[in-house]
Amino acid sequence: MSETQQSSQTPLPSLPARPWNWSWRRSTVLLFLLLFVACCYELGLDLIQLSASADPWKVTKDLFGAAFSPTLTDQSPSLPDSAPSFVSRIGKELLTTIRYAFIAMSLAFPMGLLLGFLSSRYCPAHHFIKPITVLMRSIHELIWVMFFLAAIGDSPLAACVALSIPFAGSLAKVFSELLDEHDSSARALLKYSGAGALITFLTSTLPSAWPNLLSYTLYRLECALRSSAVLGFIGYETIGLSILRSSENLYFRELWTELYALIALIILFDVWGAVIRKRLKLPAPDRHSVSPRATVATLKKHRPSWKFLHFSFWTLLLITLCAWSFGEPLIQYHSHIPPSERIATFFQQLAPQPVRENNQWSEALPWAAQLWQTHGKEALLTTLTLATMAILLAAILAISLLPLASRALASHQPLGIPNHRNWFAQFSWSALSFLVRVLIIVSRAIPEYILAFLLVSVMGPHAWPLVFAIAIHNFGILGRLWGEVLENDTSKAPATLRSIGGSRTSIYLSSLIPNIFSKLLLFLTYRWETCVREATVLGMLGISSLGYHIQLAESALHYDVMLFYVLLGTISIYIADVFHAKLRQRLRT
User: What is the pTM for the complete model shown?
Assistant: First the structure.
C-alpha cells in the first residue's frame, strides 16, 4: 500500500472542542440592545401626545409647509412703521450671536490651555485639577448663565463668562488628553539633557501638539455659536430670541428664515474650521528655493507656509477684537440692585434652608435625603434614560448611514479599487454621498434646545421630542467623528476583501467596523456624557428631568434646591467621565 493511500485511510486525530468565546464587541452590542429595550419600556411608545390647545397634525403641516416659502419681511401686522426691517433685525441678532460666541471663546481658550496643562501628567497636581474641570463642563452653559444671572445680574459679559466656563472645562479635558498621548521622544531627549519640566513642555510638547489643540478649539467655536444662539431663549438678543417669538406667534415663514440663517452661519464656520483643520494636518507647500548657505533670517522669510492659515488667523483675531470693542456695552445691568449685594444674597441662599435657619449643618443631610426621595431620584432616572435613549438612536442612525457618507466606500471606486460601472452609477454614488454628508452637517448645525422646542410644539410636551432632538444633533456629531475615524483607517484587510469581490456591506460589517470598534466606542461614551448635560437642561421645556426642577427652584429663588439638582447631574457626569477614562486606558493597552 502506498504511503498516500495509507495516509488517506488513517483517521485524522480528533481536534479539541473549540472553547466557547463571546467577544467583548458582541457583549457591548448586546448590552446596548438591552439598554435600548429598557429605555423604550421606561419612556413608553406613545410618540405623540395630543394637546387640547392645538391640532398637532395641522401645526406639523403648517410648520414644515412654511419651509418652502421663507420670508424676508415681518409677518406681524401690528408692527409700527418705525420698527426696523426684518432683515436688519435678523442681521443684528446674528452679529450678536457671533459676538457672544467669540468673547466666550476668547476667555475659554487661555483658561482651557492653562487647565489642560495643569490636569495633564506634566503637572504633579493633576489629580486635584481634573475634578475642577469635570465640575466646569458637567454643568450646562445655560445653567451657568442662570447662576450668573442670579448672582451678578443680566449683563452681556455675565452671559459670555458663563458660556466660557463649560467650554474651558471641555478644552481642558481634551487638551490634557492630547498632551498625555503625545509622542514623548523629543520631551525625553530634552529632559535627559537637563531641561526643566516647564521648558520641556513649552519647547517640545506644546509646539508639536499645537495643530491638534487649535483643531479642537475651532470645533468648540462652532459649539459656542450654537450656545450663543440659545441665549435668546432666556432674553438675550441673539437669533434664538427671534426663533422663540416667531414660533410662539406661529409665524412659521419667519421661523424658517431665522433657522436657515442660523444653519448657514454654523455651516460657514464648520466648513471654514474643516479647511483650517485639514491645512493644519498637511505640510505647507515650499514655493521658494533657498540656497543652502542662506542666513537664518532668509530661511524664516521663505519658510513653507499656508497663506490661508495666515488669513484665517488674522480674520479670527480681528473678529475677536471687534466683539470686545463694538456693540452693546458688555457691562450693562437692567436691575437696580448693586452686583455686590446680589452676589452676597446669592451665596447666602446657596446654603441649605435648615442650615440658614438653624445654623446646623447636621440638618443638611436629612434635607438632601428628602429632596432625593421626593423628586431627585425620579428626575435623575429620567435624565439618564433620555440621554441613553438619545445616544443609542444617534448611534444606530450614524452606523447605518456612515457607509453612504464615507468617501472611501460611497464611490464608484470603493477603497480606490477600480469598478467598471457606467457614468450614471458614478453620479449616483457621488450624489448620495454628498446628500448624506449635508444631512450630517445640518443635523449638528441646529442646537438641541431649539430643535427640542420645535418638536415639543408639534409632538406635545413629553419625553420623546427631547430624545429625538438630542439624537438628531448627536447623529450629526457622531457622523462627523466616526466618519473621520473611518476615513483614517489604514488597515489593508478592507482593500483585500474588495479585491476578491467583497461587497461594500460585507467590507463595512466584517472588516471596517471591527477595526475601528474601539474608537467608535470611545466617542460614543464621550458623547453620552454630553447627552446627560443636554437632557438635564432640556427639562426646562416642561419634561420632568433635572432641568425641570432646576428651573422651578430658580424661578422660586430657592437656589439651595437648584444647586442640589445641579449637583445630582454633576455627580452622574463625573462617574461617566471616570468610566470613559478607564475605558480609554483599557483600550490603549
Answer: 0.86
